[in-house]
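User: Predict the structure for this protein chain, please.
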Amino acid sequence: MDTAILTCALTGVLTNPRQHPVPVTPQQMADEARRAFDAGASVMHVHLRMQQDGLGHLPSWDPDVAEDVVGAIRAACPGVIINLTTGVIGQDISGPAACIRRVRPEIAACNAGSLNYLKLKDDGSWAWPPMVFDNPVAKVQQFLDVMAECRVHPEFECFDVGIVRSVDMYLRAGMVAPGLGRAELNFVMGVASGMPCDANLLALLPRYAPREAVWQATLIGRAEIWPVHRRAAELGGMLRTGLEDTFYLPDGQRATSNGELIEALARCAAQSGRTVASPDQARALLGLPP
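Assistant: Here is the predicted structure, written as structure tokens:
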């Protein structure tokens, strides 16, 4: 595509706001979204945090919090596209489902397969107890059913090559309701036990996506991610960054806001000869339901 859709991942799951400049409150989320919006992001990927004092590093599935946060972002960024997270461990999806039903985002993330979620410290000990991010087919279908009910476009998050290949099977098996837009895949690269952040691997992945699918790359890391962002732009992918994915700008300096990161991402698009999509253009490219 000649036009690049920019997504801002505003805050993430567990990053501690006392240690890093991630937004938590509805006003903070709206302010950061506006900075990213002004820099060219037409899509905001939204995680929700507990609002009680001292608990802003923990996720929330409170529909009231979802309504307050998403309402503040929409008011600050007229026409913006909301992409709501749904990632949850275990079979109970009632929290994410309730949030989708309350705020009716245009897009919702749909984790498309399971992953051993691992990370080692330098001394060889686990950074956290080894865990499984479980997304069996039955759970994927539950999420897709809620999205169909609410006319929400699914973005399939793929942490490994086999998960990328699974999405085509989901479509051929009739798991996705018609009329929810073009197939969209998000290649998540940089999780220690998932796909590495590698430009050579990225160049191969689109061939395993469904035909005519739109794709983007979520790149997790430090300054080393930026050459891969540029490769994603050259290959015609959509582009995503934000304080959920990195704290570092291309020159290695720490970012102080999502706006700085999106400005750098817009430069990647421009250097590849691509223009940045407006929200209306992004809706058309994704085929979002009216």
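The radius of gyration is 17 Å.
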